[in-house]
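Review this:
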Amino acid sequence: MTKHTATMAAIGALACAAGVFYWAHGLGPSAHVSKASQPAAISATAAYPEKVALPSPTTTSKPVDSTDRPGSVEAATPLHAGEVLEFAADVAKLSNVANLRLQIVERRNFFGKNAWHLQAFARTENPLRMMFELDDQFDSYSDAATLSSLQYEMHLNERGEKQESIQRMITNSAESAAAPNATQTHVVPGTRDPLGMMQYLRTVDWNKVREVHSPVYDGHKLYDVRAAYAGGAEAVTVPAGNFATSKIDLHVFDAGVEMKDARFTLYLASNPTRTPVLLEAVMPFATARVALVKMK
């Protein structure tokens, strides 16, 4: 992987949440059946997304499966159709090297299941665009109740080379790819894609929960992503304004081993929609900062 490719992959990771796409760009083309179907490559906790509640006099801090209550995300969700969040990415001393857009297109029926249609777009800007032209689009159809992935699409256009990937998530042999152009990808139950994981983190009540775990499939490989609460009421200033935030540290595990080549931090606004306002990545070759510019 070249330095420029790694840089843009890191930006893609931040835009798509949890940093998974950063490593995916170094893995080559995906197989028709992903490594997520190989139990030996999955950490012991990856198959069971969980959240760890704060201890209280009447409750214990034992892990609770985040998919135990199918309606919990749906009942009080901060997500709403039509939301558009625009970000600008800075890498090292270069400002606005890329612009990023996250949007919630709609809530719809997806082959018999209630789902959110989520999208992300990434585009490089000059002067980096002169060296690395990138116009990528990602689409996620995620279960409305749990935000587990139903279908994940990558429409990539990098340096004039286009690549299309449409993957239908299959958790048992009774399921099949509904669209003729979709590849069956076998994953563990509760698996989220990067877009679904980003939106899922917004549904967590960080005043009551200190850590969540989830398997995340990035289009190439399955990882275990662990998000840990690192403090609240932290003031963050971005082009979109000043925000009190909750700081969330993201840790990515491959086969049970934490990946140490990058550190990621997400800042969620302390507002009813828990808007993501800033994403940071500290990598061996640079520091990346993706800040909210506009929201509607």
Notes: The first strand starts at residue 50 and ends at 53. The chain has one domain: 3-295. The CA atoms of residues 77 and 203 lie 6 Å apart.
